[in-house]
Write a structure and sequence with these properties.
Radius of gyration: 18 Å
Number of helices: 9
Order of helices and strands: EHEHEHEHEHEHHEEEHEH
Shape: globular
Distance between the termini: 12 Å
Helix content: 25-40%
Strand order of the largest sheet: 1-10-7-6-5-4-3-2
Number of strands: 10
Length: 278
């Protein structure tokens, strides 16, 4: 069974977002844990949370993914930026866990000049103050394209974070197809090799989610520019091959392509047709 959805707006609430996703033909969704460009968030009353869970059951949702805000940089050496990031990840892990959301993903961050090793240590410390080990939710590190001083451009950096925290059992990986392609992992011509490399370094058991995005930028460009499925440098065939690969089959898939709900509805339909699931 394919578990697929897209990033959904929660402007009308989390229950409405789930309902809209279900009507699109999706059976999961991704939402922001709070304002992606700021610090604000909304608290949900018990009735809305109940409605959210009821709608999930109605549409047979798989794991839901929350995305931490882009303003959060756990690798930063700037005190104010780092303290904000620590607050956000601590609060949002607890808030999303209370909503019954299975996974929360975040961009590991940019070291802003202090170096990869020091940035990784900041990320580890930030996660350690946020994760108690008692949560049900998993915290996912996202694979990154490597622009600027981003951390997470290769699997070894993600492994260093995972292995360094106090509760590695609560840390997983979200593989973004656009990001890994832009980072220099050739999922078009050597998908098998990339998967074997991931398994060798991290272990496939850590892979919990896939961001399915095409790339506006060429292979190895180290730039994060998402394109609609099949309209970018990766292409439809390669992305369908990702979904078909037996090592990745069954993982929840989330579209972050530059479309509204109607556009994502069409993408989901095309993907299902390509997989002979219609």
């Amino acid at each position: 069974m394919l578990t697929i959805g897209s990033h959904m707006s929660i402007a009308e609430g989390i229950a409405k977002a789930a309902e809209n996703a279900g009507k699109m033909g999706a059976n999961t969704m991704q939402i922001f844990s709070r304002n992606p460009r700021g610090s604000g968030y909304r608290n949900y009353e018990a009735r809305e949370v109940e409605n959210f869970q009821s709608i999930r059951k109605e549409y047979h949702f798989g794991p839901v993914l929350a995305h931490a805000p882009y303003t959060m940089n756990l690798a930063s050496a700037r005190e104010q930026t780092y303290e904000f990031a620590c607050m956000v990840i601590r609060e949002d892990v607890a808030r999303m866990d209370a909503l019954g959301i299975e996974n929360i993903v975040f961009h590991p961050g940019s070291h802003t000049g202090i170096g990869v090793d020091a940035g990784i240590q900041n990320i580890i410390a930030g996660l350690d103050q946020a994760i108690t080990g008692q949560e049900r939710i998993m915290v996912l590190l996202e694979t990154m394209s490597g622009k600027g001083t981003e951390i997470g451009v290769n699997f070894k950096e993600l492994k260093a974070i995972h292995d360094g925290v106090k509760h590695p059992e609560k840390i997983g990986i979200c593989l973004d197809t656009c990001h890994v392609f832009s980072a220099g992992y050739d999922i078009v011509n050597d998908l098998e090799g990339v998967i074997k490399e991931f398994d060798r370094i991290l272990g496939l058991d850590l892979l919990r989610a896939i961001h399915l995005n095409d790339s506006m930028m060429p292979f190895g460009a180290h730039k994060d520019r998402h394109a609609p499925i099949g309209d970018g440098e990766i292409g439809m065939e390669a992305l369908i091959n990702v979904l078909k690969h037996p090592a990745l089959a069954g993982l929840p898939v989330y579209l972050e392509t530059p479309f509204d709900d109607e556009g994502h509805k069409k993408e989901i339909l095309v993907i299902k047709e390509k997989l002979n699931l219609k």
